[in-house]
Amino acid sequence: MTFPISAWFVLKTVPNYERIVIFRLGRIRPPKGPGVVLVLPLIDQWQRVDLRTRAFNIPPCKVTTKDGGLVSVGADIQFRIWNPLMSVVAVQDLNASTRLTAQNAMTQTLGKRTVREIQTERVKLGEHLGMDINDMTKPWGLEVDRVELTLESVLRAPDDSHSGPFIMPPSVPGLEGLTGPIQQLAMHFLGQSTEASPPAKDVVLFTDELSTEAPETKSSSVIEELLVAVRLVLSESLVRQVGACFQFHIITSTGQTRSYYVDLTQNSGTCGAGEAAKPDVCLSMSEQDMMALFQGSLRPFAAYSSGRLRIQGDLNTAMKLDALVKLIKTPMMSSYT
Prior knowledge:
Blueprint: H1 3-10, E1 11-14, E2 18-24, E3 27-28, E4 35-38, E5 44-50, E6 54-64, E7 70-81, H2 84-89, H3 94-110, H4 115-120, H5 122-137, E8 142-156, H6 179-196, H7 206-210, H8 222-233, H9 236-242, E9 244-251, E10 257-264, E11 270-273, E12 281-286, H10 287-295, H11 300-305, E13 310-313, H12 315-319, H13 322-336
Parallel strand pairs: 9-12
Antiparallel strand pairs: 1-4, 2-3, 2-5, 6-7, 7-8, 9-10, 10-11, 12-13
Helix pairs in contact: 3-5, 8-13
Family: Belongs to the band 7/mec-2 family.
InterPro entries: Band-7_stomatin-like (IPR043202), Band_7 (IPR001107), Band_7/SPFH_dom_sf (IPR036013), SCP2_sterol-bd_dom (IPR003033), SCP2_sterol-bd_dom_sf (IPR036527), Stomatin_HflK_fam (IPR001972)
Protein name: Band 7 domain-containing protein
């Protein structure tokens, strides 16, 4: 008698990305859907289960590494439900349990690694962490698709007894949102410098780089010699590799600011004194720091993180300048030694 009205309450429409788990008189039934599902009133209890991929974020937490360092690491995790029945029956609060399990697994996994490994092998560590989480969440009908680790900062340097160079991510006030690109810039420059240096000099502390004094140079002829060295290495292949225009603001020993540009956007590239029309990146530094940078006695990352090198523009574009630095570094070092 009440079917035309009760049909709105007993018929449930289930989309393709959902399933309905029904408990009929306390006993679980096979999942229903997609399509129209009949639910008996006062007899059935039902619950919707979303099968789409979801994501959550683990806030940065402190982890003590194997070599005695202290890092602040977070993670972005994507997961999905592959078994609706197990996700409802096996665990009471699936989201809270998954978050807690992922955080504990991340702390235990990274605690067995060194600071160096966390900095350079984050993709590989994320894959291993995903497999560890899957082993614990598989009985819940949940599968982790992707784990991306985010290294916020290094709070304490590792012990000196462990070998291998230590890379300190910068902490620049007001640029906290650019942590990822800054770390990419640091890894790029330091990786190149490490490969070029002899193995015996490979162990360098970050504090030692900041205390390195730039060699004194003559204010009048230093920049002109550097421009001559840049013109010698300009080529069409370098333009195809870089494809950007750089504007330099150099502060001399007398306190004056001089402007120079290196345009690697067309033909074989040009360089000279003055302002570029449309620079992609602007770099500001002192004359002594600039010479130390091209001679190899000062690393770009150390100069940038200490404030001796200021960058305006895209940091990924600024990384391309390393191709020019590598071409000039060897002649510059041989002429000043």
